[in-house]
Amino acid sequence: QICNQHNAEAPNLEQVFHRMAQTEPNLDHDISWFLLPSYWAKMVVALISFICFANSYDGDFVFDDSEAIINNKDLRAETPLGDLWHHDFWGSKLSSNTSHKSYRPLTVLTFRINYLFAGGFYPVGFHVINIILHCTISVLMVDVFSILLGGLQFSSKGRRLNLAPKTSLLAALLFAVHPVHTECVAGIVGRADLLCALFFLLSFLGYCKAFRENKEGHNFSIFWVLVSVILGAVAMLCKEQGITILGLNAVFDALVINKLNVLELIQKLLRKDKSLENAGLLRKGLLFRITLLMSGGASILYIRWRIMGTGPPAFTEVDNPASFADSLFVRAINYNYYYSLNAWLLLCPWWLCFDWSMGCIPLIKSVSDWRIIALAALWFCLIGLICQALCSEDSHKRRILTLGLGFLIIPFLPASNLFFRVGFVIAERVIYLPSIGYCILFTYGFSLLSRQAKKKKILAVAVLGILLINVTRCALRSSQWRSEEQLFRSALSVCPLNAKVHYNVGKNLADKGNQTAAIKYYREAVRLNPKYVHAMNNLGNILKERNELQEAEELLSLAVQIQPDFAAAWMNLGIVQNSLRRFEEAEQSYWTAIKHRKKYPDCYYNLGRLYADLNRHIDALNAWRNATVLKPEHSLAWNNMIILLDNTGNLAQAEAVGREALGLIPNDHSLMFSLANVLGKSQKYKESEALFLKAIKANPNAASYHGNLAVLYHRWGNLDLAKKHYEVSLKLDPMAPGTKENYNLLRRKLEQLQKKGG
To answer: Can you tell me where the transmembrane regions are (predicted)?
Structure first.
């Protein structure tokens, strides 16, 4: 559908574009840089962006990838696709009070497709898609920067002209190799930012297409304006920042299409000047398009708010300490300090960290804090740029500076704490889109310097050096994102005061079995943040395993005192109390954990173990049954049920439970072993033998498997096979209980048989 509205006092768009090309200075004229055909320029950008992050292709799942991908049930085929539209990014129901309300169903859908095509959680496919997305976005940036820096003009055939091929290439390269993008590309969870950026740019380019000249000579296409709104909605379904493109499209329309002078407009509004219509604000086309953008944006935000359900998410003080400060002055000062740090990451992205929370950036509580200088520097630069953007007599400078500031600031607004509290202090991933504005301002500044400089080639070499340094930094940072160990350790030098960094290093060491080193880092995390309940819980767990029960109990008791609804800590406290033989307290701790987390299979499992120790067999069986109902693949609970029923002589019931368990977990060798024991006692030797052999095939080095199979053959009368498996069992474990005695009995029996035969 094409809109055919004209204003008698406004020039048509063909005249505007023609005059723009004639009167506006060309940035390319001032710089000494490569001039490549459009196709080759895009190929160069794609290749260099690929080189920057190629070494992340075979990295592991790291940091938030565990929760967003591995533990996210929305990726699995058994989860209905419709659930994606009612769950948050992490797989929790949006209606839940614990949900982070991050609504990104299209991003989760791409994860699910990755999972299905790979046939499981294999990170290579996830990483490759992220690299391809960044390369695609970087290529699109060539077109976007050619419009933002050179203006929008079409040929007589309706083909868009690139009026700034040199500067658009430079800006696209700056974007492609910026090290702050590493988190988005090398971290799989960063796909939300990549997909959002992709549709963000497509929305902008679609909006530009609305002004392509056509055969009828109409002003603009309503169709492409609506397409732009829809693509903005799609961007928001990938990540919340996507909605900001609608505001940027409106800014672009006013400044580039209608050549609005913002300062002149403000002055006329203040004077109530009757010539406002000549200023361009009341042109029918502009008002109509802005109305479409605003209506679309308002509708999208309303639907998003309705889907969110229970209001904004609830974050804790450790996530964003400044937002919990009582003083408005302290909040304002620290928010602005965070902005200055984000700006510094764009200017000098050398110190990068996967997490900037938990004491990494101590609060500014007084104006005597030297860090106030950073705020002053930020606002000095911003105010200077804004004044130039509003007051410069050069319309070209006004346009580029305003667009640069717009793309720098507007996409950052959702992360600014101005409209709602966010769950982080600084997040490098949220600078992905604002870096577009930085690249515009950097490139424009380079062109101004080149215009004044006598030796332009020296400046060009300096910029080329910056690009090479950034490529190197991207490659180094990508290698750090390949594994959690490298990623977490890289943060120790950047944020030594961040308790979460020490916690994650400790957790990584504990997962690898290095408990002694893990304890050191967990203790440091608790020292830095005495209320860090997750560090207390993990440290208590390790101390429990090392039989340091007294300190473990103290830590876990403190954790539940600080956070009374911390279900995992209550369960672990119950395990410690059980080990200390304080059974009543342990039972109470388990039930408190279940009270705070209704669906807690592991807690039911441990509760069952407590009841088994107390010979409360029916209660134990009920607890384990609850664990298997909540988690059908809970092998330990199934095994304990089979063993308890076996030990109490309920062989028929034990057999029924074993068959039920194997029906749900057919490849679990421990279940095969337990059921084989039951079948052997029931004299179902053939079936028992088959299960023993299957279990041994799955786990050939288990001495008990060979030993019990030998017992079966011994009972069955297959003495040679019994002798063989007794010997294998003793070879694997010479101290296996009972096996040596049974083997000696068998040998005596074989000797007796040989004597009788002789």
So the answer is: 39-57, 131-151, 163-182, 188-208, 220-237, 243-266, 286-305, 372-391, 403-424, 430-449, 458-476
